[in-house]
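Q: Here's a chain of 94 amino acids. Please give me its 3D structure as tokens.
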Amino acid sequence: MSELKDWRDLPVAGRVTPSTAEQLHTGGWRTGVMPEVELSACVNCLLCWIYCPDSAITLDGTTFTGFDYDYCKGCELCAEVCPTGAITMVEELT
């Protein structure tokens, strides 16, 4: 982690821009299961994208393409809200 700045060196109002924010990979905290998708069963409703608390759903424009396992924690919300059952949770092999 980077060194803390003196308060006088912080931007006005303490704002952080996306380009300067540190991107932490949180997928290492996964619960032991991970989502898997059968893309042919996906109807592209994007409910998984809406409900994902970790922004781990990957899109190509507005089309679901899969998961970013660097951020997925295995919470199972995507599988729970998938209306077609295209997303299932599988045991993560270590």
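Q: Can you summarize the key feature?
A: The CA atoms of residues 41 and 76 lie 18 Å apart.
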